[in-house]
Amino acid sequence: MNDRERRDFEAGLAQEVDALLRGEPTRRTFITRFGQMTGMLALSGPMLGAMTDWALAQAKLELADPSTPLGKAQALALAASIEGPTDGSAYRAVQAAKQYSGVTLSMTYEAGLQALDPRNFSGPMWEQLTGIKSNVVELSNPDQYSKAVAEHIAGSGAFDVLDISPAWTPSLADGGVIAPLDDYIKEYMNPADLEDYHPLYRALPTYKGKIWGFFDDGDMFALYYRKDIFEDPKLMAAYEAKFDKKLAVPTTWEDYAQVAQFITDQMAPNVYGAGHFRKAGSPGNQFDFLQQFRANGGQLFDDNMKAQLATPAGIKTLQNMIAANNASIPGNNELDAVSLWAAFLTGKVAMIYSWPPTGRMAANYSQTATAINFIPQSQIAGKVGYAVVPGNPEHATGFSKALSADSANPVAAYLFMQWVTSPPVSLARVMLPYALRDPYRLSHFKSELYADLFPGAKDYLRTLNNSANVGLLDPIMPGAQDYFLSLDRMATSVWAGADPQQALETAAAEWDATTERLGADSQKAFYVEFLKLPGSTADNTVEKLGQAVVID
Amino acid sequence: MAETLATFRQMPLRHPRPRTAGFSAWCDRHFKWLLVAPAVVLILALSIYPLMFSLVVSFINYDFQVPGHAFVGLKNFERVVFDPVARWSLVLTALLSFSCVAIEFLLGLAIAMAMVKSFRGRGLVMSILIVPLFISPVIVGQAWTLLLQRPFGPTNYLLTQLLGQEVTISWLTERPWIYISLIIADVWQWTPFMFVILLAGLTSIPPNLYEAAELDGVDGWQAFTAITLPHLGPMILLAITFRLLDAIRLFDTIFIMTGGGPGTQTYTASYYLYTVGFTQFHLSQATAGSWLFLIFTAAVVTFLVRRLLKAEVA
Questions:
Q1: What class is the B102-313 domain?
Q2: Least CA distance to B258: which residue of chain A?
Q3: pTM summary value
């Protein structure tokens, strides 16, 4: 240290000493407090997390009035878990899971209403039965895929149970993100419970001969229509006079557009013939296009995996959809799924086709839950009929429960999946007013309790079952998101005035680019696997395979 | 002070800490580095590392649907460059951002000119005017969707009443109305930003300049062009630069109001990158696109900042 440095040092030291003697903060106290503050910040994260976990763990099991159908279904689920039958999947899962008491299972769920079931019902009930806690991770729908993959790549073991779209099963299975369940099923499940799935859904989680999950949400489109309008004598007479046939619920897409146009001509602006969710990405036009395209005989790919969209079937489909749009409520092309519900529930639209919650909302059952009060009260309760969508209805997305391959507690996670999708527990879940899980088991469709849930529920269940008999599945293969996006872009561009043929060719080119990116041979192998599933084409439905389920 | 120091040196050490003395001395020597270390670590961890990692990702396969992370060279960049949707999104980003900023500037300037002089209720009016600034763009998008969406939105009804003939505009699905809707939403939210900055600039112009001009017989327009604009120049450039940097990231209102549709007609660069990355899961392509977008943005920023600095020097 030279003289200058020494002088500077001593001057600085003197200042510090003076400050110390005056009781002012010094560098040392600053460093100490800074360290304390940093430590507190570091601790605050985990503390906040722990407090949040604690707060969420305080969520109590919400049970309905025991005298109601839902209350009875919940009591039955509880009894099946505690008392048996002892060979039932619910009972066996609970008994086997008790040894994992204290474990916490992380499970992904779509954010919002979907997550209310594990938070308010199945999660707390499972904890009471087994001592296993649940940590519900709410994610947006795309994140349910991307987060699962990202956490697998990171090897974090962040999730135990994954809620996935069946379309993702092949890529998640091949990517090692999810684990096969066959060995667990053999050890813990009553095989009869697998037979309780509707045939359309039974094979959905099966890929390359293994079972990769339990199907858990029957997202089948159905047609919901105003019975009072279709049974109006004046309208019936006018329709017959004009078209020389009876006014009836349409069974072809040409009829659908014609009936919609007739109702609009007769009743607008009070009521319009139809409405559709046509807004881009909300949730998209791909489902409607796919169901009509395949009902019109369209094939998705040829033998060389070239897209077959720009074909007469594609043109016919778009022309039918345009005709339906023209016959619909003004602003049809701007509607999303929720605003379409609003249009139907307020009586502005005579026909819509959508997911099964439509029936529960139309009967004002869903609106009994405060969580779903953003949906308007139904002004058409008691006036709604249910029918199979013309041609073949789409099973649009749906959910399967899958076991994360990185789970630290795979057996406990599996047992939860088995329990929560078991016939008695799943019945109680699909009956929850706020849940968006829809019936998918034969025991759901035949349930007397569900039939008592709201007036017309028996017809509703029969229609959902019949729809599944002739229903079509979304393509289950990698790149499904890309294919869907191309269809949605194509459709919305046509609604905005683009030439249908040109739009179809653009979409086909995008499909081919996607196929090429993912590998044509690899995609072909996936497509061949998909074609084996019932519901992959209009010629391969459950009904055409002779497996149709009849509900009295 | 010297006395104090001497006294202090004679004071016995109550807690001799020979083992930490070396550490303390080290801390004293490197005190300035210790102070900046947390910030440096944070920047490295949260900015530099992700940036470098994203650069790596843009040259490899990082796709949630294609296993492996093989080196692919410029393939990801090529996919973006030859994607017509990407090119259109860039054009639309430029068109929308320049249109929005131009309108916001003109309106903001007009309002600032009107508000520069004190009048009764000025404080209340100003408070109301700047409210949109505090609203999340997602909420703004949702609010305008509710106002414009057919058949429930009241806009067409109000226009019908005003014009005396039926108005059936599809504001969210029909060209050019869809672009007008997006511009309206953006202008409604961000004009107050321009207004606030320009008002600050206007109030800093010395009033004696206007008094002198008035004595010289200068009319209002001449005063505006000869006094107001030159003095307001740096503030105008600042406001436009800030606003333009924000406008080119337009995403939220697109996401809520149009979902990018119809077709890809309302894909901005941000929306395109989001779709590729988080709807289609082509992360490496989205990352390459982000770098290209960054380069374009950097060019604009550099140009504007240089103009800004030049204005300051002048």
A1: mainly alpha
A2: A280
A3: 0.86
